Amino acid sequence: MEERTRKGLHISPVDSAELSYKTKLALIDFIRGYETDRPFKLPSEDQLAQRLGVSRNALRDVLASLEEMGLVTRQRSKGTLANPKVARECRMDTDPGLIRMITRMGCQPRYEVTSLRFVEDKDSGLEQNSDSYLEVGKLFYAGDTPVAFANDHVEGKIAAGHREQFEVLREENCFFFLKECCGVSVAYSMSTFDVMQADEALQKLFHVGPEELFLVMDDIVYSRDLEIVCHAVSYYRKGYLPLKVLRKGW
After folding, report:
1. Exposure on the CB side of residue 17, measured as CA atoms within 13 A
2. In which element (H, E) is residue 214 found?
3. Cβ pair 151, 231 in contact under 8 A
4. DSSP assignment, residue 42?
């Protein structure tokens, strides 16, 4: 059964499997679903824990994680404040993040898989002893206009044992594949930003000339064991997407 909050929002209870992960996703969806962009106060820890079907200790761990992500702040005198604007508009994961972004622009989002193949070759962004990778390329559209391209390389030694599940990546992103298919949880990624004119490959993908500008985000993705598990490069066509980066105070 779904529990409802004061303004008609609801939070779906989660089962006991992978409790922390599912609780985090449920709360992020709850924050994104708030009716305005203004920050709002979350229900008390007791109420949230009861509605989600988790212990207060499990909930506190999740709230600490959301605070680290910048989605909530916690103060003794004010409780836990959530920021739905940040939750909706900041990139937290390539595929669903782009789909949400394009939808909020008032456009119909879609994507096509341009490549899904296992490559016996080195990628300089992966570990030095890596000699293969699983390549996943997706071209994202706003209506009929191509606006972004994501090209992910999953470390070959991790992906090789899960070839029968490669097709999952036609519907899901690499983080999902790593966690659900390979049993590898992602801790964080280190991003490098640059601007470039369209090279021959981008000209062909986007049907543009060499003068077209792209924002390039190059991510080195680390597991919880602090091993590099993925090298992800995203190309965003200039002037089409409202890209935003959250910078936190320390």
Report:
1. 1
2. strand 213-223
3. no
4. P
The answer to whether 72 touches 66, Cβ cutoff 8 Å, is: yes
pLDDT tens, 59-76?
999 999 888 888 899 888
Q: How far apart are CA 239 and CA 250, in angstroms?
A: 31
Tell me the pTM.
0.75
What average pLDDT does the chain have?
87
Question: Which residue is associated with the tokens 């997706």?
Answer: 138
What's the CA gap between 5 and 2, in Å, rounded? 10
Order the strands of the 228-237 sheet from edge to edge. 109-119, 133-142, 145-155, 228-237, 213-223, 186-197
- Number of residues that this document lists for the chain: 250
- Report helix angle 19-32 to 56-69, nearest 10: 60
Q: What is the pLDDT of residues 182-236, one digit of tens each?
A: 999 888 889 899 999 999 999 999 999 999 999 999 999 999 888 999 999 999 9
H-helix or E-strand spanning residue 87:
helix 84-89
Decide which of 248 and 38 is more confident: 38
